């Protein structure tokens, strides 16, 4: 009871000295601190796979990543309130619309790539070796076959993950689609995805989560690390190359021209043969 009271007092204090932005209708769960304090508080409607968990993990790796630094987190009433440093600047998406920073020759895609590949140097703990869809809290990640609206449990292997997301491939209507059936029906694409590595992936590494200096156009950092976690490495490439509103064509094309490790490229090429749609 005493600990819960302390949490409520901390949250009340943070709420008192912060406010939502003028664009609160877009991000109602983001509070900016008053009095020029360079902090922000983010409310996540769950207590697992949160940004706080990810920032604690990434901060412990020794990598010098351009990400927010965690100051505090409060778990209360099923929500997590993450207090972290404010990254100044504007989203690359907005800057691209106004300043043409989406030019394919702009150096920011190179920094994107450097950060993604730096994350790939991280090694899984032995107890989690080979597991995927695994967050920093030890829980699951958004399920791609449910349009990321629900969370799936961590999968023991890439094979089990692809079994989960390829049940639509069972054209013979078997009572039970198994990993054995999957491997027999699609041996080459499955071998390609299984040959790739497991890596720490930011599944929303897109233009709206990249902050740049609005004056110089220089890269500042990357936001929104909740739901990052251990996934097949080629899923990061899919995210970077995916065309969409949040990843304009000229910018996505930068990553289509970049070449990643051969086995990752082969796995990326094999994905369309296994998935009924590709979404990130």
Automatic annotation (TrEMBL):
<keyword id="KW-0808">Transferase</keyword>
<protein>
    <submittedName>
        <fullName>Kinase-like protein</fullName>
    </submittedName>
</protein>
<feature type="domain" description="Aminoglycoside phosphotransferase">
    <location>
        <begin position="48"/>
        <end position="248"/>
    </location>
</feature>
<dbReference type="InterPro" id="IPR051678">
    <property type="entry name" value="AGP_Transferase"/>
</dbReference>
<keyword id="KW-0732">Signal</keyword>
<dbReference type="GO" id="GO:0016301">
    <property type="term" value="F:kinase activity"/>
</dbReference>
<dbReference type="InterPro" id="IPR002575">
    <property type="entry name" value="Aminoglycoside_PTrfase"/>
</dbReference>
<dbReference type="Pfam" id="PF01636">
    <property type="entry name" value="APH"/>
</dbReference>
<keyword id="KW-0418">Kinase</keyword>
<dbReference type="InterPro" id="IPR011009">
    <property type="entry name" value="Kinase-like_dom_sf"/>
</dbReference>
<feature type="signal peptide">
    <location>
        <begin position="1"/>
        <end position="23"/>
    </location>
</feature>
């Amino acid at each position: 009871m005493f600990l819960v009271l302390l949490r409520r007092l901390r949250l009340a204090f943070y709420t008192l000295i912060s406010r939502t932005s003028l664009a609160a209708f877009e991000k109602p769960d983001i509070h900016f601190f008053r009095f020029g304090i360079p902090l922000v508080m983010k409310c996540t409607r769950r207590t697992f796979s949160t940004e706080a968990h990810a920032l604690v993990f990434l901060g412990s790796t020794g990598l010098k990543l351009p990400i927010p630094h965690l100051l505090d987190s409060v778990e209360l009433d099923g929500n997590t309130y993450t207090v972290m440093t404010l990254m100044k600047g504007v989203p690359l998406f907005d800057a691209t619309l106004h300043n043409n920073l989406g030019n394919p020759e702009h150096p920011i895609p190179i920094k994107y790539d450097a950060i993604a590949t730096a994350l790939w140097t991280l090694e899984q703990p032995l107890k989690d070796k080979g597991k995927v869809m695994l967050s920093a809290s030890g829980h699951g990640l958004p399920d791609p076959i449910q349009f990321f609206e629900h969370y799936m449990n961590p999968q023991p292997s890439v094979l089990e993950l692809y079994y989960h997301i390829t049940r639509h491939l069972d054209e013979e209507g078997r009572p039970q689609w198994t990993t054995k059936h999957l491997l027999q029906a699609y041996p080459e694409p499955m071998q390609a995805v299984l040959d790739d590595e497991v890596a720490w992936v930011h599944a929303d590494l897109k233009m709206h989560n990249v902050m740049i200096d609005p004056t110089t156009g220089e890269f500042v950092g990357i936001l929104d690390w909740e739901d990052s976690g251990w996934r097949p490495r080629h899923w990061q490439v899919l995210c970077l190359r995916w065309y969409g509103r949040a990843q304009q064509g000229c910018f996505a094309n930068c990553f289509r021209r970049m070449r990643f490790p051969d086995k990752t490229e082969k796995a990326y090429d094999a994905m369309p043969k296994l998935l009924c749609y590709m979404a990130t």
